[in-house]
Amino acid sequence: MRIRELAKAAGVNVETVRYYQRRGLIDTPPKPLHGYRCYAPETLQRLRFIRQAQQFGFTLKEIEALLAISDAPCGEVRAQIEAKLEKVRARMAALQRLEAALVQQLDHCRQQSNQARCPLIEALLHTDEFSAN
């Protein structure tokens, strides 16, 4: 299939296919002398793999590592997934701390609603007094 057909079948645009080729995530088929590149069905499978991995939150660099070990024993793949899960949990913890800090500042704003300047603005102006961590 041609690049446009491949992109449509994978749910990406043509530039995404070209970008993945430049990054080495998918192979670039040879171009015939007088014609268009013809992509193998395996390329479509690989594009779908990349999209699905992105849905799980993997970056292209992480996906590249997964593709490199795609034929490896499950233990190697599991290690990559465990590392990603650790990153996700750390990000979630950071977001929970941020949420708590915002809730605290919002409560403070509600208590001080008659002030000329919002306490949150004051806290942000004096960054040593305000921490989202």
TrEMBL record:
Name assigned to this protein: Mercuric resistance operon regulatory protein
Pfam families in UniProt: MerR_1
Function: Mediates the mercuric-dependent induction of mercury resistance operon. In the absence of mercury MerR represses transcription by binding tightly to the mer operator region; when mercury is present the dimeric complex binds a single ion and becomes a potent transcriptional activator, while remaining bound to the mer site.
Keywords: Coiled coil, DNA-binding, Mercuric resistance, Mercury
Source species: Sulfurivirga caldicuralii
InterPro entries per the UniProt record, alphabetical: DNA-bd_dom_put_sf, MerR, MerR-type_HTH_dom, MerR_fam
GO biological process: response to mercury ion
Annotated coiled-coil segments of the chain: 78-105
All copies of domain HTH merR-type, residue ranges: 1-69
One GO molecular-function entry: DNA-binding transcription factor activity
